[in-house]
Design a protein that fits this description.
- The structure is a single chain.
- This protein is an all-alpha fold.
- The protein folds into two domains: 182 residues, MFS general substrate transporter like domains (Growth Hormone, Chain: A, Up-down Bundle), CATH 1.20.1250; 205 residues, Up-down Bundle (Growth Hormone, Chain: A), CATH 1.20.1250.20.
- The longest helix is centred in the N-terminal third of the chain and has 32 residues.
Length: 463
């Protein structure tokens, strides 16, 4: 009877735990405030991204110079790393982010005033990118700490995934809205809207209760991460693929201002094209959840790279062949949706696989290296595409990217099988921690066993 009672009690605990997991995180007031404020901020960011891209190309008429403006946000991160580390370990993340967003409101207001007065020059756009990039770099470590403060520990990955989903959805709506705002109201109003969307986020962050999490300063994290990657063939191959993807695929976004101008010079067309790319990207979670039930990781990565390459070739051919106007816009939209899906599919899988195969004692260092590599490579790819477009043609540059990805997929098809050792279909247990969230994201609820195997291999029990 006692044994039955204990078993019944354990079953009841399991049911209550499952019910607690099903309860919406939005029932937590701090989470609810932060999520709703983040929705507005993500929309504002998407609107201003389209406005800046449109303004930069209109003023420079050069894809390389447009990429310089769009890449200016990333440059300060390399020079501010030591200061970023000190802020991350010595300052309350709420204070860091609140002061950063207040500064961004001021910057947006000043640029809006310049736009309304007709003094928004190309040089001012570059300076704006550098200032905003500096603020973003200083604020970046604070956001993960804020999410830790508002979410239960075992649901942190769920909240993080929610922010990623919000960003994807806001990118679609905000891109289209940004084009409409610029076309109808002007660039100045895009900056005003962006500034206003920061205000609810400032209020939500100030209202976060509790003490910030404690972190040990890791001065040599990047070096340790590189050593770990160098010793692990799976991580090494994942990093190479991620670098090539960010070099030849993601920079296509920076070519959209020139593409939109060639097929239809109105600002709202740039919004439509950007929204089409992100519409494909937004479907990635739904697609991953289905293809992972049937195919191993290597095959999914191969199909993603091959699809991105072939669709970029088709995109270049169709949009260059069509006369500027509605037909060219439709052709561009229809090809950008699968391109966005394929690129996001490979990006999501590679990032998840890097996290899955990273040993627990160096996981954060490996992820820091991963973020650094992708941050460096993407602007370089944009500059290469821009230079090729200015020297040859836009269509030739896009076709070149498609050719690189297609050849890469075909030449590395067999080597991608190394990722199949992480396949969630072979072993009997249940995942724990962030691997449970990754299993859920990868559509692997029926395959919890292998994630437990990976957890046991990478996180061995300490004596």
């Amino acid at each position: 009877m006692t044994r039955f009672g204990n078993r019944h009690g354990r079953a009841g605990d399991a049911v209550r735990e499952q019910q607690r997991r099903r309860d919406s995180l939005l029932r937590i007031p701090a989470v609810r405030r932060l999520v709703f404020a983040y929705v507005g901020s993500a929309l504002g960011s998407a609107i201003i991204a389209v406005a800046i891209a449109f303004a930069a190309y209109q003023r420079s008429r050069s894809l390389v110079l447009t990429v310089v403006v769009l890449s200016a946000n990333a440059l300060p991160a390399f020079f501010l790393s030591s200061l970023v580390g000190r802020l991350a370990t010595r300052r309350d993340p709420r204070s860091v982010d609140v002061l950063g967003y207040v500064a961004k409101v001021v910057v947006a207001g000043l640029i809006a005033a310049a736009a309304f007065s007709g003094n928004l020059s190309y040089g001012l756009l570059v300076i704006t990118g550098l200032v905003n990039g500096s603020l973003s770099a200083l604020m970046a470590p604070a956001w993960p700490q804020l999410t830790q403060m508002v979410a239960p520990k075992d649901r942190l990955a769920e909240l993080t995934a929610s922010f990623a989903t919000i960003t994807a959805g806001a990118s679609i709506i905000g891109a289209v809205a940004g084009g409409v705002v610029v076309a109808t109201l002007g660039i100045g109003w895009a900056f005003v809207i962006n500034a206003l969307t920061y205000l609810p986020l400032i209020v939500a962050i100030r209202a976060i209760p509790g003490a910030p999490p404690e972190h040990e300063p890791g001065r040599r994290a990047i070096r340790a991460g590189f050593r770990t990657v160098g010793r692990n063939v799976v991580l090494r191959r994942a990093f190479v693929l991620a670098g090539l993807l960010n070099l030849a695929a993601w920079p296509v976004l920076s070519a959209l201002p020139a593409l939109a101008h060639d097929i239809d010079p109105h600002a709202h067309i740039l919004g439509f094209l950007t929204g089409a790319f992100y519409a494909g990207a937004a479907a990635v979670t739904w697609v991953v959840a289905r293809v992972r039930r049937r195919y191993p990781y290597g095959k999914v990565l191969f199909v993603g790279f091959l699809t991105a390459g072939l669709m970029l070739l088709a995109h270049a051919a169709l949009t260059s062949w069509r006369e500027p106007g509605a037909d060219a816009v439709v052709a561009a939209v229809l090809t950008l949706v699968p391109i966005g899906l394929a690129v996001s599919l490979d990006t999501a899988l590679l990032q998840a696989l890097v996290q899955l195969d990273s040993p627990t004692d160096s996981e954060r260092a490996v992820l820091a290296v991963y973020a650094t590599v992708t941050t460096i490579v993407t602007p370089l790819g944009g500059l290469l595409i821009g230079a090729a477009a200015d020297l040859i043609s836009l269509w030739g540059a896009l076709a070149g990217c498609g050719l690189v990805l297609t050849v890469l997929a075909l030449s590395l098809r067999n080597r991608l099988e190394v990722f199949d050792q992480l396949d969630p279909r072979d072993s009997p247990a249940a995942p724990t921690g962030h691997h449970f969230a990754l299993a859920h994201f990868l559509g692997a609820e029926p395959f919890h066993d292998a994630f437990a195997r990976l957890h046991d291999r990478n996180h061995p029990a300490r004596p």
